[in-house]
Every structure is written in structure tokens, then in C-alpha cells.
Amino acid sequence: MSLVTVQLGQCGNQVGLDLFDTLYNDAQGGQRKTYTTACYERFFHQTKDGDLVARAVLIDMEAKVIKQNFIKTAKSGKWKYDDVSSFKQKQGSGNNWANGYLVHGPQHREVVEDIIRREVERCDRLSGFMAMMSVAGGTGSGVGTYVTQCLRDGYPKSFIVNHLTWPYAAGEVIVQNYNSVLTLGHLYQLSDGILVHENDTVHKICKHLLHIRDISIADINKVIAHQLGAVLQPVLTADSDGHYSRNFMGDFVSALTCHPEYKLLSMSTVPQMQSSSIPYTTFKWTPLIKHLRQMLISNNKMEEGIDWQVRPLAVSGRTQSLTGSNVNTSLANLLILRGKDVFTADTGDFSEPALYTSWQSPKDAFNVWKCPVHYNKYEKMAMLVSNSQALIEPLDNTVRKAWNMFAAKAYVHQYTSFGMSEEDFLESITFAEQIISSYSQLGCNR
Ligand SMILES: Nc1nc2c(ncn2[C@@H]2O[C@H](COP(=O)(O)OP(=O)(O)OP(=O)(O)O)[C@@H](O)[C@H]2O)c(=O)[nH]1
Ligand SMILES: [Mg+2]
Predict the structure, then answer these.
(1) What's the CA gap between 250 and 127, in Å, rounded?
(2) Ligand 2 center to residue 62 CA distance, Å?
(3) In order of start, what are the domains of the chain with their CATH numbers?
(4) Smallest CA separation from ligand 1 atom 17, residue
């Protein structure tokens, strides 16, 4: 089954390009034929001439990034985007969610829906959609939300996952907190799962684990693509009977988002290191899994500086840690292991009930997917996708700043001038506060 990716705005298009590059390079890496075939079926279609074409729709309200994507893929000669699957305009959405959602989205609805329909018709069977965008600009956030709404209306039975890039807390877009809250407030009801990468966290990975000095957006995007690829490449699920999972999106959504109030998904991987160090490093499953588990409960999104003092301790009333610091409580975790001897890896530590909210049994809350083929040059790698309290903090910061600006009526007229009402702001802020409150409750009722 195949996945159609919709890349929106500058960020969605730049991260999307790196994602397809990562998927392609990994599938090419002298690995097993069935793995490569499963990857191609999911993410590319083949032309009569044998060219691989990404199952992607590229949308931006300015032309530059999409043009660059076509130039880059033509230069590399590995795989292509299809020209007829792109839609670009000249002006951008000026970092304004309302401009994207209320003006550009509806204005171009028909042509965008046609492009998406054509891409869907190229799939023998559609597993679902992944819409990729930043939440801070105007096109990714506003048009991205609108297009997700169109997907939901047009394909009510298909799975839709959104990949959101969360801006640097000290970001360059003054209204980024408005755009983020408005995006989340609307997407939450449309999407089956919302994967979030925070630019701040990825920046730290580049600095502390990859030891990059002058970190560029290209470096950040490589890390995001590496992590996303580790989720998306073919795997064996518990009941896939030795074959690569066919209904990837269905399996993914049912493993992680069992409750409509909880859809936020964070990602972490071990190991992550400079590629020059990989050949000289030995990896063992037990320490990799132990590190990833500790990163989860101490809410540390990278392997450096893990707080080993945080231990879950189930006591009546709430989940506490031995040290009194907060334990990150999960609703669901999906562990994905890729590489050598993967079937010998013991993952029992992730089944401890104290990791999960009281109303979830670990049997339902925890899933493991495995793949014996190594991923992206790592002999062994472990990836955790977690529906947990991990994203409360960035969300809380965003909502607080958005509320403070709204209370001062700052920049509100820029949104109302595109037809948004002040009630729309309030609704999204209240909704985001409700999401934070729901996640905060996860650790409170043991
Ligand atoms: N990780 C990452 N972040 C990006 C990238 N490009 C932009 N951003 C972030 O995304 C936010 C800006 O959103 P853009 O994607 O540039 O905006 P857009 O969707 O094109 O919307 P408009 O330009 O307003 O029409 C800022 O927080 C940037 O830091 C990228 O390639 N990678
Ligand atoms: Mg732009």
C-alpha cells in the first residue's frame, strides 16, 4: 500500500525533499530486495522509462523552494518529483495563518484537489496521507490546515497523519505563536496523528551529538528526515506474519492514537552520531533500549545528559519519581528496532505499567516493530514514537505567549482583516489549553 505525501510551504517542501532522499538512499544501500521493493511501493511510482517518482504533492504560495526542489532532484538524478504534482504561486502567505486558511486555501481548492486526486489514482492501494509543514509561517500552517480539511472531506476513510515542524522558541516570526495555536486548534479534529519535531530539540542534537559547529537548516532537516524515515520505512509488525506491514498508516495510528484527545507524537532515536564515527562504534541492543527508555521517562529527547535519577514509582494517587522530578507518563509507545540480530532484542522494560497512564494496560499501550535490515548506515538503531507528556512544555510556552499577545490585542487586526474573528482566536487558544490539560492528567490518576 502507498502513502501520498503533501509538502506545504517552505519548510514542508524542504523537509519533504530530504525525507525522500533519505528513504531512497536507505532503500538503495545494498540491502534486501523485498525491503527495497516495499519502500518503492510505499513512496515512489515508476515511469515507463524506469524513473522513480516520489508520491508527493508540492504546494507553496511562493515559487522559490519548489523550483529549487526540482533543480536539486534533477541534478542528483536519483529520483524525481513530477512537475504536474506541484502547485506554486508568487506571493507567499506572509506568515499569516488566516491568509493561508481563509484566502489562499479556498482560492486554489479545486486545482489542488485535482493534483492530489491524480496522485492518489497512481496508487494501487492508498494507505493514507502525510501532510508536512511548519506551524510558524502562513502557507504551511494556514493552507496546510485547509488542505488537511480537504483531505478529510474527500477521503473520509483514509488515514491522515500530519508532520509539524515546531519553531525555535526564540523564533524569527513575530506571530509564530498565533499561527502555531491556530494550526493545532483546527488540525486536532482532522488528523489521526500529529508528529512533531521541535527545531530547538533538533538543533541540540546537531550540536551535542553530531558536533556540527555552524548549524544550518540543511543540517536540521537531515536529522528530521533521518528520524522520520526510521518511522516510515518497511517493518514487521507483531501480526504481519513475516511480511512487511502493508497497511502502514492503519497500523501506525492504531498503535499510537487510541483516544481522540491525545494525538501528539514525539520521536527519539538512539544512537545518533557523526557518520565518521559509526564504523568504529559497536552497538548492542540492551544498552540502546535502556537509554531510549530512560530518555522517555526523563523526557530527554537526546542521548546526551540523560537524567538517570528519574525512575517511575507507582504510588496511589500519581506516578512519582524517586527524586521527585517529573516522570513523563505515556499513553502509548511504539518502539521500532532496525538492524542486526533484531529478534534477540529484549524490550520487556517498556512494558512496565508505571510508564503508562492508569487506564491503559501496557499490552495495549506498547507495540514493537522490527526490521532485520539496518537503517541509514547504522548497524542497529532504536526509534521511539511516543504519545506522552513530552510535548506539554513547548505547547504550554506557545499557548502562554499567544494568549499574552492576544490579551494585548497585538497583531490581531492582521488576522481579522482576512476575515477571522476574535472568537476564532479564543476558540483555538482554549482548545490548545484543553490539550495541555488532558496530557497533564495522564500522570495524575494512578
Ligand atoms: N526545520 C526546518 N524549519 C524550517 C524550514 N524552513 C522554515 N522553517 C521554519 O518554519 C517557520 C517559517 O515557516 P515557513 O515554512 O518558512 O513558512 P511558509 O509555510 O512558507 O509560509 P509563508 O512563507 O508565510 O507563506 C520558521 O519557524 C522557520 O524556522 C526548514 O527547511 N526546516
Ligand atoms: Mg514561504
Answers:
(1) 7
(2) 6
(3) 2-266 (3.40.50.1440), 269-387 (3.30.1330), 393-441 (no CATH)
(4) 137
